[in-house]
Write the structure tokens for this entry.
Amino acid sequence: MKHDLKNTSYQKLLGDISFLLERARNQAYKAVDNIRVQTYWQIGERIAREDLHNKSRAIYSKRIIRKLSKDLGFGRVILYRILQFYNVYPIVSAVPRQLSWTHLVELLAINNPTERQFYEVLAAQNMWSSRQLREKIIEGVYFKKGKGSLFEKQVFLVPKEPAAVFKNIYNFEFLNLSGAHSEKSLERKLLSNIEKLLFEFGTDFALAGRQKKIVIDQQVHNIDLVFYHRGIPCVVLVELKIGRFRSEYVGQINKYLNYYRENKKYPWEKDPIGLIVCRNKGKEEAHYALGNITNHIFVAEYRTKLPSAGDILKKLKELNS
């Protein structure tokens, strides 16, 4: 019997697989781009530090960038842009975490720091693509709103959208964990490096507790970590898992969120958010497990070891080719 590959069943199969492939590509790109931004900042800082030792800085910069371009196989334009990136954002924590390198390239073209920050905030909060950001800049939204207006002064205090706050992958390389580790050792290491953990999570996070006990039907439950996010504002409940994501984790943290919303939430706060951080979240399990959940629950992976410098350089060259 000859099968008709144009039927509805096949078209649905094709659509589902195309969706999974596209999502995987997007996740991989975000992970690589996050490494790219961090690496570019470090490269810019290193070049700038070298410049400080030379009196003829402008001449030296041109010479060193020309030489680096040849030896590394990088274009001079991208190296100049990397140096400009560091000069504009000399404090790495000031780099908007939700924005990609292509977003930052658009922002670097803006000389006015206030105007630049205006677009930074709106791009992150509205999850604009780099193309949308470019269009808003060309449109002159900053000037239409009125320079020095009340809107401009208040825009930085607009509550943040949860989707713009949480990352898909968290870098826990600073923990120096061995390949095999327990959830307790992971939690203990994170708490002993709380400053680095908060830096990785974001500047608006504050630690509110660990192993927080709640009682439901006379059963004691312990929540691994409790954070507070000032920009949303809300409580964030975090569950740490050392293995692969499992669908029952959603039911567990959903129960905690409902308890907090009904018993711990202040009137001015938004509903609590759940974050499950695991070693591997898979490609489909989290997607289907979170379907139709009314509470905000995010699933992220953690990394205890980043790619080598050689692997990163190879990826960066591919992105810039």
Observations:
- The chain has three domains: 1-95, 97-158, 163-303.
- Residues 1-95 form one domain.
- The two ends are 48 Å apart (CA to CA).
